[in-house]
């Protein structure tokens, strides 16, 4: 199914009912909570990776 990323508005293929990349991507609770607070639907792989890198990088 084609979806539009809520964050960057790019289109991407969602294959959640199949073998989607997001089912094997580990996100810690901080990242999951951040995404859940701001977005209601899927984000593209690039946005997930950017958010994960931003929030999981030690300061």
Strand content: 5-15%
Write down the overall mean pLDDT: 87
Specify the oligomeric state. single chain
**H/E order of the elements?**
EEHH
3D architecture notes:
- The chain is α+β, with helices and mostly antiparallel strands and 59 residues long.
- The chain has one domain (2-56).
- 37% of the residues lie in helices and 10% in strands.
- The chain has 2 helices and 2 strands.
- It has helices spanning 29-38, 45-56; strands spanning 2-4, 11-13.
- A two-stranded antiparallel sheet has the order 1-2.
- A hairpin with a 6-residue loop joins strand 1 and strand 2.
- The relative contact order is 0.24.
Main attributes?
59 residues; alpha+beta; 2 helices; 2 strands; 37% helix; 10% strand; globular
State the gist of this model:
By secondary structure, the protein is α+β, with helices and mostly antiparallel strands. It contains two helices and two strands; from the N terminus they run ββαα. The model has no long low-confidence stretch (mean pLDDT 87).
């Amino acid at each position: 199914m084609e979806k539009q990323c809520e964050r960057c508005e790019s289109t991407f293929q969602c294959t959640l009912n199949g073998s989607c990349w997001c089912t094997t991507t580990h996100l810690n609770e901080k990242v999951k909570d951040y995404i859940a607070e701001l977005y209601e639907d899927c984000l593209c792989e690039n946005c997930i990776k950017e958010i994960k890198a931003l929030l999981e990088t030690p300061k």
